Amino acid sequence: MKKFMKGVRFTPKNYSDEVEAKIQHYKKEGYKLPMRSALRTEEQLAGIRASAKINTALLDYLSENIREGMSTAEIDHMVYCFTTDHDAIPAPFMYEGFPKSVCTSINDVVCHGIPSTREFLKSGDIVNVDVSTIYKGYFADASRMFMIGEVSPDMQKLVQVTKECRDIGIQTAQPWARLGDVGAAIQEHAEKNGYSVVRDLCGHGCGVKFHEEPDVEHFGKRGTGMLIVPGMTFTIEPMINMGSYEVFIDEADGWTVCTDDGLPSAQWESQILITEDGNEILTQ
């Protein structure tokens, strides 16, 4: 296969000529492509994987220690201490003014819940803990759901189906597919189970910056959207509501996103790398 001239080649030097040829083909066909900077170099991938390793270890640590009766401020303290003990930085802290090191979102809070000394985990709660890490300038991002004490069967099902939506999204995010395929697969599974998919928030590129191209919507139409190309790193983080997909931001703090109808919401988030033959889960 022919070599591509310097200055014309789309991909970094660590990418195969086969990948380059496919990108050039799709470019001629008029497909929407990611920016060149969204395709990671070997150095960037090493940095992102190192950050992801800390991020996943942090979630494992929280899984072992989260408990009924603790305040969300205690979760925030654990996140800050664990992250800094590993020579890393909690990415949410002061990001666009966010005041804490982690997002803790309970029951009808969809995302961006702010930890508080006045908010305690109670039996029956479901809580999403969303942690993001900066290590040596590279970013990792993931969240997990936790069920506290005796959780109702309806809430347990919501948490389980949301996890399935995340996993289906990952399975669908294959090289040379489209982002619309990912959103459609997630939406189909959620709605089949009687739930709705939040429209106003999405996954995102992550690795060199906290939030970068592309936007990864969790609803959509197959065969539409950006082409998924080897070398991209992005999150898949469906927010699934028991009732309507409508949400609002709490004016009191300007961050907390809640369901409009007060019914519960759940979210699971992973960060993935698209490879030539599939994908690699970086965080979960």
Automatic annotation (TrEMBL):
Keyword field: Aminopeptidase, Hydrolase, Metal-binding, Protease
The reaction(s) this protein catalyses: Release of N-terminal amino acids, preferentially methionine, from peptides and arylamides
EC category: hydrolase
Any one GO molecular function term: metalloaminopeptidase activity
Cofactor(s), names only, from the UniProt record: Co(2+); Zn(2+); Mn(2+); Fe(2+)
Binding site for a divalent metal cation 2: 141, 204, 237, 269
CDD domains per record: MetAP1
Cofactor binding note: Binds 2 divalent metal cations per subunit. Has a high-affinity and a low affinity metal-binding site. The true nature of the physiological cofactor is under debate. The enzyme is active with cobalt, zinc, manganese or divalent iron ions. Most likely, methionine aminopeptidases function as mononuclear Fe(2+)-metalloproteases under physiological conditions, and the catalytically relevant metal-binding site has been assigned to the histidine-containing high-affinity site.
GO BP annotation list: proteolysis
Highest taxon of source: Bacteria
Ranges where the Peptidase M24 domain occurs: 47-276
Description of how the protein assembles with itself and partners: Monomer.
Role of this protein: Removes the N-terminal methionine from nascent proteins. The N-terminal methionine is often cleaved when the second residue in the primary sequence is small and uncharged (Met-Ala-, Cys, Gly, Pro, Ser, Thr, or Val). Requires deformylation of the N(alpha)-formylated initiator methionine before it can be hydrolyzed.
PANTHER family from the UniProt entry: METHIONINE AMINOPEPTIDASE (PTHR43330), METHIONINE AMINOPEPTIDASE 1D, MITOCHONDRIAL (PTHR43330:SF8)
Protein name per the record: Methionine aminopeptidase
Source organism per UniProt: Bacteroides muris
